[in-house]
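Morning!

This is the sequence you dropped in the shared folder:
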Amino acid sequence: MAKLRAAAVSFLNAWPLTAGLERSDRIELVLAEPSRCAAMLEAGEVDLALVSVGGLPGGEYEIVPGIAIGADGPVQTVVLAGEQSPAIWDEVFLDTASRTSHVLTKLVLDEMGVHPKYTLLPAAEGLARAKGTKGALVIGDRGFDVRANQVLDLGREWNRLTGLPMIFALWAARPGRVGPEDVQELSRAAQHGLGIRTELAQRFAAERGGDPERYRRYLTQRIRYGLGPYELQGLEVFLERAAAKGFLPPMKLRFVDDVVRSHKPRRAVSVDAALQKAADGGRLDPDEAAELDEKAPLLELGLAADARRRALHGDGVVTYIVSRNVNYTNVCTTACHFCAFYRPRGHKESYVLSREELAAKLDETVRLGGVEILMQGGLHPDLGIEWYEELFRWMKRGWPTINLHALSPEEIWHIARTSELGLDETIGRLVAAGLDSIPGGGAEILHDAVRRRIAPLKCSTDEWLTVMRAAHRRGLRSTATLMFGVGEESAHRVEHLARLRELQDETGGFTAFICWPFQAANTRLVPGDGSAHAYLRTNALARLFLDNVPNLQASWVTMGGGVAQAALHMGCNDFGQVMIEENVVSAAGTSFAMDSDEVERHIRDAGFSPARRNMKYERLAPASAGVAG
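The structure's back. Tokens below.
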């Protein structure tokens, strides 16, 4: 297969996106100035390029989703400099390297009421002539060395002006040249590069001189590499304002995955007939599920789901588990737009739990009657498979009765890639070290268009499902999840459920399904409908559609006890976990908490009998229930 040719800038801020392409089997990398990258793309010399946003208008390009170079405040390397205040500048020398920064300069100065003459000059010459009423634009690595009486950071100025991030560059492709596998390769490279930003900063310092810590902070704290809804809003506002002022021609953004799809019309479906079919245990097809999701009254949808719950679990027992969430690290490279928990490596709030801290948590869990540790963390670039093997063996030696329910598919995929191992070997070694089962985290919405928008550097839908398939074949059981309310449509949720049901038909490895709405506090992602009504609808539809998944778990942690009680009458037969500890959801502003007594009281008040269980949904004898509560 012929490689794609890709042009990219050699500035430090691009290194996290390009370092992982140096040994790529799919993409050949060519380094050039920003203006030259755009020219090569326009001339057809390359298939895609990391181009300045200002070079997009006028070209029929397709943007690679999810990845960009931007800033949400000071950027350090796009600055205006001069001796006197910009308010009296009558001429500005524009660094010839980037059209985006030319336009940004004009927008910022125009807002200040300053309308100087603009002259193109190389950065060094422009800086030398920036005297008196003259100013100069400097971009890229040259910006680290700018010393002047007046320095305006254009990232900061744009943020002050709009309250939005500024996007400086992104991957753009000639139409039809880049496919989903190429997008995934670019995402893989970015994930790799974001994980080695400290090393890249050290390498840059060794080659160029300067303080590596300064460069590390620049890469981890100044530059943003995602292109999610928040960043897209900033990009669109920039293009709209530039077009309104006549600085750029108008343009409509087009993405690689924006292809015209010939969807067959949804066939006519009777809501009443579909509800009765599902309540009787018939298998819904996607058209029927979408129709119910969009049109069925909540009460009727809930009644049908309750009929299925009673058919599957007719003894009036609702189960729960005493478990502890242990987030062993918050260091992560993916920087998902919906996550308030993660921190980049080197951040003052980043951590990896010590063995002493873990031992204290495990001892307390056993003392409180806990039977499981649900262990998940960020994608830490320094933790290879040996670290997890040693940790799991240590845990199993000291606490052999605890079920180790650990590592989402995203984490397992990351461990395999970081350790340069095959997926089957990675899972086999983890199982040998003590892994008992896998949580369903990281699924979010199993539709790549949605995933690239909310978590552009996460694994793809197929990769998530591939890990689950491999785990099930090794005999591991897992849960399946859905996080909704991220701007997705009904069709996306139904496809998510369909992919889960298809894999369950193949492996039978899912023990339960859990859904919850996106928690927006302390994140950058604008939420969709996360109401109790939306939660109960989604939950009920899942019970009707997932006819081969035996258990549905209510999410009291995100919705509260009252809504979870209602869910028990709309398809759920499990009340989830007595969480001795939880960090990820609480970081996003949710703070519901219950001990065993409260969980059992909620179950009884809803009209059911409580029973403790293990991860396999096997009920525990009362004598095994411990002393939690």
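Headline: The chain has three domains: 4-70+165-244, 78-162, 308-617.

More detail when I'm at my desk.
O.
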